[in-house]
């Protein structure tokens, strides 16, 4: 473990655990903003309700999703992709709140990705039993840009693997306020989330929310 307090005065004190070169967990880095982040998720979801999408192969996903930012990640029988509008309403996704962008940029910078400016934020909502199978994030144009992933609410077990699906995975416990960043040599590592255990979080009830920030274009 690398104990390393972040030097921005307005960034919540936290510590960093390196997972491998190019990847780290910033424990508690989103805690200072917890209420505002959750309020923003609520407002975004009022405009663009969470949807259960299907994979191109027709499997229903157990995680509900919405997006904010210039581009949103979607999946259906036409494939995985980013698009500027919601497939349901055909309206542009809600703007990315400044707080979201700032948090993602700071986290990326702390792990060495100094010019990350996300244009897409996928918001995942997990209820007990929901999971995300091992996958690589590779629908983005510039794979030199990292991924920043913020956990809020119920705890989850994040699987962080290698560059091949069959590689051994590390199990990382993610709790409310943790931020994971991966890029560089780690950018295409397989990752996923094991089925969420039931519980009650004081701020999110029976849910876990995840914000995944990417530079899609
Ligand atoms: O929920 C998480 O922590 C990870 C989400 C994820 O892997 C993704 O959206 O691609």
TrEMBL record:
Cofactor info, note text: Binds 1 Fe(2+) ion per subunit.
A GO MF label: ferrous iron binding
Classification via PROSITE patterns: FE2OG_OXY (PS51471)
Keywords attached to this entry: Dioxygenase, DNA damage, DNA repair, Iron, Metal-binding, Methyltransferase, Oxidoreductase, Transferase
Enzyme Commission number(s) from the entry: 1.14.11.33
Residue numbers binding Fe cation: 135, 137, 191
Binding site for substrate: 73, 80-82, 139, 165
Domain Fe2OG dioxygenase: 117-217
Top-level division of the source organism's lineage: Bacteria
PANTHER family: ALKYLATED DNA REPAIR PROTEIN ALKB-RELATED, NUCLEIC ACID DIOXYGENASE ALKBH1
Official protein name in the record: Alpha-ketoglutarate-dependent dioxygenase AlkB
Lineage of the species this protein comes from: Bacteria, Pseudomonadati, Pseudomonadota, Gammaproteobacteria, Enterobacterales
